Structure formats: structure tokens, C-alpha cells
Amino acid sequence: DRQVHEVQSYMGHLETSDKESVHLVENEIQARIDNIFSNLERLEILSSKEPPNKRQSAKLRVDQLKYDVQHLQTALRNFQHRRYLREQQERQREELLARTFTTNDSDTSIPIDETLQFNESLQSAHRGMDELIGSGTNILAGLRDQRVTLKGTHKKILDVANMLGLSNTVMRLIEKRAFQDKFLMLGGMAVTCLIMFLVVQYLT
What is the DSSP string of the chain? Predict the structure, then answer.
């Protein structure tokens, strides 16, 4: 915590530092941030060795410190980027003011503003994200359609299975009825033969 507060204090000096000393302040802040990151790696290893009842709170504390330091690192980079843009714009203004233009000067050119390039890069990144989100949406829609198709196929399979089950039942009933009819036919033939035998026996 003490090291984080020290870095925050140094961050406050950036806006008030002159051009000659601002680089020194930035280097000092970066060195302190790198040192904190190194200490956090060791703390993360130590927190994993804490007793189970203390391990979770120790890990949360390390994660909070890591988040704070990452926030400071981002703030430093944003300041450096803004400083770089200011310095480049100042150089371009000085070059523009120092340059002598003539009416037919075919070589007259104005440097492209770095901010415009940065904005174009951001717009390109936004377009890429929009395309990525669109692709993800299409993939999800395709998965939903496949899910509906699979549900319909599953229902048809169940219907066919039910039909097959019904057909098997009907076939068993037909086989049973045919078996019974066979015995009835054999019985009828036996009775008919017996009657014919008795008729012939008693009438002759």
C-alpha cells in the first residue's frame, strides 16, 4: 500500500513538471510500478501457501493491489501519449511557422496530424469489433437454428419409435391369432375325420 501511495504522489507531479524533468519523473514512476509488480508476484505465491481460512482474503488483497497498479500503469501511459501528441503538435507548428511558402511551391506539404491518425485507428478498431460482434451473432443464430432442427429430428425419431412399437404389438397379435387359427383348423380337421370314420364304421 505504501508503494502504491508513493506512485500516486509521483503521478501528481507529472502535470506540474517542466519539459526537462518530466522524463525523469516518468522513468521514476515506471521503475516503481515495475518494482510493485515484481513484489506482487511474490505475494501471489505466498498467498497460495496461506492456510485455507486465510487464503481467500489474502488472494483478494493481492488482486486489489494488482488492479490499483494496473490502473496507475494505464494512467502513466495515457499521460505519456498525451505528452507525445502535444510535443509533436508543437514541433509541427514550429516547422510550419519557420517555413517560407511561395505561390507555386509544388513541394509544400503539411504533416498529418497524429491525433487524426489515432482517431482513424480507433475507428478501425471499432469497425473490427462490430464485425466480430456481428459474426458472433450469426454463429449464435446458426446454433439456435441447429437446436430447433435437432429438436424436430428428435421428435420424429420418437414418433417413429412409437409407431414401430405399435407395429410390433400388432404383429404379435396377428401371430397369436394365426397360431390360434392353426389349432382351430387342425382341431376341425380331426373332428371331421372322426365323424367320417364313425359314419363309415356304423353304416357299413
Answer: -HHHHHHHHHHHHHTT--HHHHHHHHHHHHHHHHHHHHHHHHHHHHHTTS-HHHHHHHHHHHHHHHHHHHHHHHHHHHHHHHHHHHHHHHHHHHHHHHPPP-TT-TT---PPPHHHHHHHHHHHHHHHHHHHHHHHHHHHHHHHHHHHHHHHHHHHHHHHHHHHHHHHHHHHHHHHHHHHHHHHHHHHHHHHHHHHHHHHHHH-
CA 165-163-145 angle, to 5 degrees, is 120
Domains of the chain by residue range? 1-98+152-203
Q: How confident is the model at residue 167 (pLDDT cuts 50, 70, 90)?
A: low
pLDDT, tens digit (0-9, with 9 covering 90-100), for 97-119: 887 655 554 454 455 566 667 66
Quickly tell me which residue has 519539459 as its cell.
19
d(CA 33, CA 16): 20
